[in-house]
Amino acid sequence: MITQALILSAILFALGTFGVLVRRNAIIMFLCIELQLNAVNVAFVAFSRLVGIEGQVFVFFVMTVAAAEAAVGLAIIISIFRHYETVNVDNFNLLKW
Amino acid sequence: MDLTLTAMLLQGGQEAAAHTGAGFMPFYPGLILLLPLAGFLLNGWLALKHAGRAARVTRVGGTYDLDGGGRPATHTLPTWIGPGVMGLAFVLTLVNFVGMLGAGLHDPVVIHYWTWMATGTFTVDAAIQLDQLSMVMMMVVTGVGFLIHLFSVGYMKDDPGYPRYFAYLNLFVFFMLVLVMGASYPLMFVGWEGVGLCSYLLIGFWFTDREKSDAGKKAFIVNRIGDVGFLLAIFVLYRTFGTLDFAPIMGGAADTLVYGGGLVTLVTLFFLLAAAGKSAQIPLYVWLPDAMAGPTPVSALIHAATMVTAGVYLVARSSVLFALSPVGSAAVAGIGVLTALFAATIALKQNDIKKVLAYSTVSQLGYMFLGVGVGAYAAGVFHLMTHAFFKALLFLGSGAVIHAMHEAYHATHRHDDPQDMRNMGGLKAYMPITWITMWVATLAISGIWPFAGFFSKDEIIWYTAAFAGAENAPFPGLYTLYWILALAAALMTAFYMTRLMVMTFHGRNRTGEKEAGHLHEAPPIMWVPLAVLAVLSTVGGWINVPEELQASIVGLGGLLPSSEWLHHWLEPITAEAHHIQELQLGELAHSAPFGGGEVAWALISTALALAVVLATSQLLGRREVQSPDADPEPTGFAKVLANKWYVDELYDAAVVKPIQRASRFCWKVIDQGIIDGAVNAVGYLARGFGWFGSLFQTGTVNTYAFVLSLGVLVILGAVFF
Questions:
Q1: So what's the pLDDT on residue B18?
Q2: Per-residue pLDDT reduced to its tens digit, B152-207
Q3: Alpha-carbon distance B550 to B564, whole Å?
Q4: Is pLDDT of B48 > 60?
Q5: What's chain B's Rg over C-alpha atoms?
Q6: Confidence at residue B19, expressed as pLDDT on a 0 to 100 scale
Q7: I want to staple B392 with a disulfide (CB 3.0 to 4.6 A). Which of B196, B305, B518, B628 is the partner?
């Protein structure tokens, strides 16, 4: 059972990573990151079968942080969109130095 | 603070006096030092106040005019303070001198005040030494100094820097007294450096003139070269003796040092370098002629009578060391006689009245060196003293002339050089006192009987001859040559001094009709010192008439007083040196190299000098002197002399330019090129690395995400495989 769950988790994570790497739309990339986070969540839940309740507790932490992150991230994306009227990350190269 | 210090000095003085036991009680000797120092502090304070006032007046748009309205107290007080402290110091010195004269002192009186520095086994006390030599020097410094201070009152009274002038002059006298009264070489060095400082300050007294401030710097820098010699000699002496006080060194030198050994030769040659710097001898004489940029009384006091004789004093003070080193002594005498001749040749063709006197001073200092170099220390000091009289008189007289010329030109708004003798002529009608007193000094410096210079110069020349003929003279041929050169220089002296007198005072007046009306004799405050010095220049030589001469016609058959008084007076100082000399050289000769006794040569030399003076005045008196503009440029050898043998140019090319180039090399290549280059290279390197690193920072999120993922894969790969 754990094996299947972990395989699922791995597939989801790989999809998420693939999405982050190949897509250019900031929203899509954001969704893909959420996908990665949830892939991790699946793994946590699966492992809690073996090690106890701590795995599920971690999932709640991850979801909380993800929610906060989503709020900040979306706010940034919206303000970028208002400024440039695009969310294509190829247009932004300010994150250097 | 002054009071407590005074009390301390007085107390110390009395304590020491109590256990000298020689019967000589020093009378407040510390005060002789303190008075000029107090004068400096007071005048210096007034000068600061004065400068502040002048600055305030000019700031609000006014001009600081001394002629309009009453003069401020800051300008009138130095008149009393400056010469006042000197007068008191002279009286005190005189009292001590009389005391020493009566006591028949043999060992020097050393008065310790406090320990100046003590490190390990090395201690130097702040102590003064009163003996016959320092007493003679103190008499000259305070006595002639006092007269020159008086003269300065008349000469400088209209100068805006009047209080500053007296502050410097007092400070100079203080340091000069430290130099001659100090009981150890380090203390002497303090005075040595101090007088150098004051010389620099006073040469560049009118510092707004670039040329004058440059002359001050030149004097300072050239003197530094000599000072290195002084310091090195001190180091060697300390290594050898473990102390730097005069008394133990002079007392122990004969036992510690080998006659003619390398060590003592080294010390004496280092001292010679120091003395050549301070006393303007070849090769370091070049600063003295330029030092004439200072006010004329300064030239009289510092650059003729006192400071420049410090080198002679140094040699006389270290007489034992020099007596132990025949090479060192021969070098001193050689440098001296070469300088005497060389400077005299330059003086022949100078037209600036002060330049003639400057080269004459260099030349006369050469005679003093010759004197102390042939072991005639008393004769060297004797010439030092008489030279202080007649050269101070000549400089002050030229000061009176320049003063009159300057005022005449000032009144008519003419801009010619008031120091150029070609502009003078016929001044005897306008300034008879200056004329007569300067003739006295001219006859004295020319070595004409019975004036002071005759006795002192004749004694030096005679001792040179006697030394050359000594039983075991170290370099007899060399000393014979010295003797001939000294005679030649003496004749040149007579010529250039007569030329100066004729061009200045005789012949047709060349100042111009308008200006001639403004010419006038110097005021009493200026001519009284001239008169006193004229008397001293006449009788000053009579204190040391040699025995052989005294009985002869030269001594008027014993009519002239005192037989070798100065010689006997300085005996306690020079005895040790003479003892060594007698031991090593044997009896001095009693005739000149080519025959003739002392009396004969005295008569020959004075007759020759007189003949030169008369011939020169006849020849030059008849020739019309051209004005500076009309005077044709000298040609041939005269041109070489007029240009001072091109020594300044030579030094410029051989020393100054290479140093400038080396400095430029250090600046441009070493400092800016190598050192700055290395620092900059480190910076560029860091920048290059930064640029290379920044290539990985594209700024696009995808790159980062890709690298991040790649990194994760690499780590995972490393973990699992």
A1: 41
A2: 999 998 888 899 999 999 999 999 999 999 999 999 999 999 999 999 999 999 99
A3: 9
A4: yes
A5: 31
A6: 44
A7: B305
Report the SS3 class of residue B718: helix
Average pLDDT of chain B, as a whole number: 89
Question: Average pLDDT for residues B66-79, to the nearest whole number?
Answer: 74
Which residues of chain A have a CB within 8 Å of the CB of B697?
A: 96-97
Q: Among A86-90, B268-272, B374-378, which range has the highest average pLDDT? A: B268-272
Token pair of B615 as six digits: 């011939």
- HEC string of B9-36? HHHHHHHHHHCCCCCCCCCCHHHHHHHH
Q: What's the average model confidence in pLDDT over B654-663?
A: 93
A76 in contact with B, Cβ within 8 Å: no
Structure-token match 């110390």, residue found = B12
Question: A77 at the B interface (CB within 8 A)?
Answer: no
Q: Would you state the structure tokens that stand for residue B340, as one six-digit string?
A: 């005497």
* Sign of the C-alpha dihedral computed for residues B559, B561, B564 and B568 taken in this order: positive
pLDDT at A97 over 70: no
Between CA B98 and CA B108 the distance in angstroms is 15
CA nearest to B387, candidates B405, B407, B410, B362: B362
Q: Please report the beta strands in B314-417, taking only residues with DSSP state E, as ranges in sequence order.
A: none
- Using alpha carbons, select from B466, B489, B491 the residue that is nearest to residue B479: B466
Within an 8 Å CB–CB cutoff, is residue A15 touching chain B? no
Rounded CA-CA distance B457/B494 in Å is 12
- Show which residues on chain B lie within 8 Å of chain A, measured between beta carbons: 694, 697-702, 704-706, 709
Write the residue in A17, A29, A89 that is nearest to B709 by C-beta: A17
Closest in B694, B699, B709 to A93, CB measured:
B699
For residue B67, the model assigns a pLDDT of: 53
Q: Which residue of B has its CA nearest to A22?
A: B702
Query: What is the rounded CA–CA span in Å between residue B533 and residue B515?
Result: 29
Across the interface, whether the CB atoms of B699 and A17 are under 8 A apart is answered: no
Is residue B385 predicted with pLDDT exceeding 60?
A: yes
* A28–chain B Cβ distance below 8 A for any pair: no
pLDDT greater than 70 at residue B705: yes
**Residue B66 pLDDT grade (very low, low, confident, very high; cuts 50, 70, 90):** low
Query: Average pLDDT of chain A?
Result: 91
How far is B235 from B108, CA to CA, in rounded Å? 24
Query: Residue B61's pLDDT is what?
Result: 59
Provide CATH code, domain A2-84: 1.10.287.3510
Whole-angstrom Cα distance, residue A75 to residue B564?
A: 114
What's the pTM value of the predicted model, to 2 decimals?
0.82
Going by C-alpha positions, the residue among B441, B454, B438 that lies closest to residue B609 is B454
Give how far B679 is from chain A: nearest CA, Å. 25
Chain A positions touching B701 (Cβ under 8 A) are: 29, 89, 92, 95
Structure confidence at residue B549 as a pLDDT band (50, 70, 90): confident
Confirm if B475 and B330 have CB atoms less than 8 A apart.
yes
Give the model's pLDDT for residue B695: 85
Identify all chain B residues contacting A29, using CB atoms and an 8 Å cutoff. 701, 705
Cα–Cα distance for residue pair B407/B427, rounded to 1 Å: 14
Output b/e per residue, B312-351; b: 16+ Cβ within 10 A.
Answer: bbbbbbbbbbbbbbbbbbbbbbbbbbbbbbbbbbbbbbbb
Determine whether the interchain pair A90/B698 forms a contact, defined as Cβ–Cβ distance below 8 Å.
no
Give the closest of A17, A89, A97 to B702, CB-based.
A89
